[in-house]
Amino acid sequence: FSGGTGKGTVWFFGKAEDLEDLRHDLFEAGFTPSRCYRRRRRHTVRTTCDTYHVSREETSFKVASTSFAVLMAALGAPVGEKAAQDYSVPDWLKQAPRWHQRLFLAAFFGAELGGPRAFASRNCNFQAPMLSLNKKEGHVPSGRRFLEDLGAMLEGFGVAVRGVSERAEQVNADGTRSYRLRLVLSSTPESLRALWGRVGYAYNRGRQAEGLAAVAYLGCKQQVLARRRKAAERAVALQGEGVAAGDIVQALEGPHVNRRFVERSLYGARGSVRCGAAFEPFESFRRRACEGLGTSGMVCLRIAAIEPVDLAAETGDPYVYDFTVAHADHNFVAGGFVVSNCGVRLMASELRREDVAPRAKALIEELFRRVPTGVGVGGAVKVNTQTLRKVAVEGAHWAVKAGYGTEDDLGFIEEGGRIEEADPGAISDRAWERGRTQLGTLGSGNHFLEVDYVAEIYDAEAARVLGLFPGQVVVIIHTGSRGFGYQTCDDYLAVMDRAMRRYNITLPDRQLACAPLRSSEGKAYLGAMRCAVNFAFANRQIIAHNTRLAFAEALGLKPGAAGLRTVYEVAHNIAKIEEHEVDGRRLRVCVHRKGATRAFGPGRPEVPVRYRAVGQPVLIPGDMGRYSYVLVGTETAMHETFGSTCHGAGRRMSRRQAKKAARGRNVALELEREGIFVRGASLRTIDEEIPEAYKDVADVVDTCALAGISKKVVQLRPIGCIKG
Fold it and tell me: Fewest beta carbons less than 10 Å away: which of 104, 345, 407, 477?
């Protein structure tokens, strides 16, 4: 501030590309930074060791704004010379949500913390990161407290802290002595991966890229160490069985396991397992894995090995369980079908449960206000028939172009949010009329929008890949094509009735009505069903957009501050043409998932690149009082169930039985006493959906996991729910 109280100015220094990122964010926040300046600067630095003269080109910009300077000071930034004043981590930041703390730490580290440094002689191990802070005498205690507070925040991210060191430095021109304080962090692989992977560096692309490369490198190193430990244990076991040493070496020798390692394991000369001399040094790995990727933060890894899995050894169960239908074809392919599309979207925020809890009831009320519910209800988005025909072809893409959400959502929706070959000409006038007012609405029955938190993690790596962490607030949206899809289904029941007589098909129940896939009736229905699928994609996209608005309004956040992103959206009650292996041959088949959902395993091109290593996310809702689950698809499902698994718990009571069981009770109040806030279109809706009306979804999920057709990743528990 000029003269201490005048015009406020804030200067930023760094690399040009990093400063441009900063300038962009400042513009977004409503401030006007200057252009970047470049000039040659000369500095003289005096230390206890020597005096250094440095000449370099300096890049900087300024924000000449008193309001911005006051904001920074009010948030706790020191004004003036940092070494000659007391300041601390402000209380608001200590109490802030973890994602707020991460934003601060990453930006601070981008400026103040060095990047990963491997030892010169042992280039596969990293030096302990140290954050330095200079203080003049009299201000050392506050500097120590500041670093200790940073350490406490870091521990919340899984970063281990070894302590704060202190060293006397030079005597300054004013006669005072300076001291260097250092926050010393742990160099264990787990701590380093947490530091560089969970916190990282903001506004410093180079260090962020180095940190992510180091995270990938440490992951490779851990895999090699695990392989070597397993080889050492196996060597000792074989020796105990009387196998000759030479035969043991021949059996175990391979990448990263050489003769000397095996022999030292056998004769007790080996200490703790290390990665070995053949393991690639970090600098070599970084150059190779990041070649051509610049400072994007991306890392290219190579497949280390493809090996058969011993089920008995890995799971204790040597059997793969087979779910089949009673049919000679031994599969789930249907020659004819009538379905109305439905699906589930999972959105993950950067908020934690404790961030939302104080305003949970207000959040549910705001969601109930913004997302219409109930039978036949419309009102969120009304369009004419001409526009609705575009929706039926473009799906979620239409919604994004209309301003509901972003392109980022589309990459995490099954089929990219649009199924091809939809035929608007196959839709009736009555279906167009019913659908015209129902975009962005939840509907009735078992459809819901639920706010949950991550209660338990079963597969830490898969959870990391999906971006899920303990206590994280997430949203499940379960709805479909509303009256548009229902009318389409109803229209084609009559078409199928006539077709069955024409093709001499006899069935015990009209609801099973079908027609041959390649018949004119079958082709027409396929085209109409795809229109309903695209309507459902657009419907969930609009609801997701309004969910983001509700979070911002109810929690008093800026738009986007909750960080709600689409983890994945997957359909159920749908028929799709897919390619699968049948009796050793790759065939295009029609997979009809009724009461089932897609569960493609790792490596399938239909799975988003980000998830391809772990498999497609599978979303399994439970009931509004217990829990839901996130799973991933497996390779077993690809062979046994055409990449399918269960899609929910299923009812154990009819709606009439549920209403009878709820008679005389206030179900919403019962749930509120358990910390779960529920709003429904009517009391009848809530009564019909009481938790005990459903099977325990944990039993269903465990069965699928034991069968190997999907793998548990996390359990979600409800904070609140709106019902149709």
Answer: 407
For the domain covering 342-723, report its CATH number: 3.90.1860.10
How far is Cα 668 from Cα 721, in angstroms, rounded to an integer? 10
Percent of the chain with pLDDT over 90: 53
Specify whether the CB–CB gap between 640 and 714 falls below 8 A: no
Q: Look at residue 135 and give its three-state secondary structure.
A: strand
Q: Is 561 exposed, middle or buried (0-12, 13-18, 19+ CB in 10 A)?
A: middle
- From the number of C-beta atoms within 10 Å of its C-beta (0-12, 13-18, 19+), residue 311 rates as middle
Positions annotated as catalytic residues are 647
Give the CA distances from residue 106 to residues 185, 200, 571, 640, 666, in Å, rounded to whole numbers and listed in that order: 15, 5, 37, 45, 47
Which residue is it, tokens 């959902």? 597
Q: How far apart are CA 13 and CA 405, in angstroms?
A: 35
Where does the chain hold its CATH 3.90.1860.10 domain(s)? 342-723
Higher per-residue confidence, 324 vs 719: 719
Report yes or no: 570 and 344 within 8 Å, Cβ to Cβ: yes
Instruction: Give 454's contacts (C-beta < 8 A, 6+ positions apart).
Output: 463, 468, 469, 470, 471, 472, 474, 714, 715, 716
Q: Please give the backbone phi and psi of residue 380, each rounded to the nearest 5 degrees, phi first.
A: -70, -55
What is the pLDDT, as a whole number, of residue 320? 55
474, 455 Cβ separation under 8 angstroms = no
Q: What is the DSSP string of 155-196?
A: HTTT--EEEEEEEEEEEPTTSPEEEEEEEEEP-SHHHHHHII
